[in-house]
UniProtKB/TrEMBL annotation:
Pfam families: PrsW-protease (PF13367). Keywords: Hydrolase, Membrane, Metalloprotease, Protease, Transmembrane, Transmembrane helix. This is PrsW family intramembrane metalloprotease. InterPro entries: PrsW. One of its GO terms (biological process) is proteolysis.
Length: 258
């Protein structure tokens, strides 16, 4: 396979494909952003990029005979399921979430209280966007010039969106795990990983065939995830600040930031 040639405009379109979502979650996070939080956001983007590069490198090693297009000798349903749930869902979410946990334990975990802090949600979102930046750039680079803007819009609206939503969900599960004991907490986070794989796999399973009906169902699914994420955001981010193992209303919070 010839090496993919990526032009400067492919990088520009790739960056623009994540910019609206990055701006939205950064501005929506109205809690104090410490220096370590801002550094964590930069590292989150870098780790998202690293996860994409690792997957691109591992793909031909793990599946040397597999391409993005289903083979005729294999059932279309089986091939699509493999692409959606294994090659995309399981592989991508395992890498992304591993890096989310690594960064969260490094910069977003209170070891004295044994709690994830709220900035872990930001880190989760920006790992997803770092991943999408590279993936979107690759897809845009593969398209002919006349189709680049069309694929840019599709990747911005669908791909960047769904990666972000899935990992924001996982970020909120990390916060929800704060009240659980060690063993229960580990099981809870593994279940959250399983949910992320399932969400990713179902959406890709609906989108890969390219049928209009599947696209509408996939769109409805991630609209539903948006509702879930916005609801969690309002509960865990907007009106609350951290205090020990519980959260207190902002009106009761002292002027000192953590």
């Amino acid at each position: 396979m010839s090496e993919l040639k990526i032009e400067i405009w492919d990088y520009v379109f790739g960056t623009l494909s994540i910019f609206p979502w990055a701006f939205a979650i950064y501005k929506a996070y109205t809690l104090p952003k410490s220096r370590s939080t801002k550094i964590g956001i930069v590292f989150a983007l870098l780790l998202g990029w690293v996860s994409t590069v690792l997957i691109i490198w591992l793909h031909p090693i793990l599946w040397p005979q597999t391409d993005f297009v289903p083979k005729r000798k294999v059932s279309l349903l089986t091939s699509t399921a493999h692409l959606a749930f294994i090659q995309a869902g399981m592989m991508e979410e395992t890498f992304k979430i591993s890096f989310i946990l690594l960064l969260s334990f490094a910069l977003g975990f209170d070891y004295e209280k044994k709690n994830f802090r709220t900035e872990t949600v930001l880190f989760s979102g920006f790992v997803a966007l770092g991943f999408s930046l590279v993936e979107n750039t690759q897809y845009i680079a593969r398209e002919i010039s006349d189709k680049k803007f069309e694929i840019f819009l599709a990747r911005t609206i669908h791909s960047s969106n769904i990666h972000l939503l899935i990992n924001l969900c996982f970020g909120f599960f990390m916060l929800k795990s704060n009240g659980k004991e060690n063993k229960e907490r580990i099981i809870f986070l593994f279940a959250a990983l399983g949910l992320a794989i399932l969400q990713h796999g179902v959406v890709d399973f609906l989108l890969i065939p390219g049928a209009v009906f599947g696209q509408w169902v996939a769109t409805a699914l991630f609209v539903g995830i948006w509702v879930w994420v916005v609801r969690d955001w309002r509960v865990w981010i907007v009106p609350y600040f951290e205090d020990k193992k519980t959260l207190i209303p902002a009106s009761e919070y002292s002027s000192q930031s953590y």
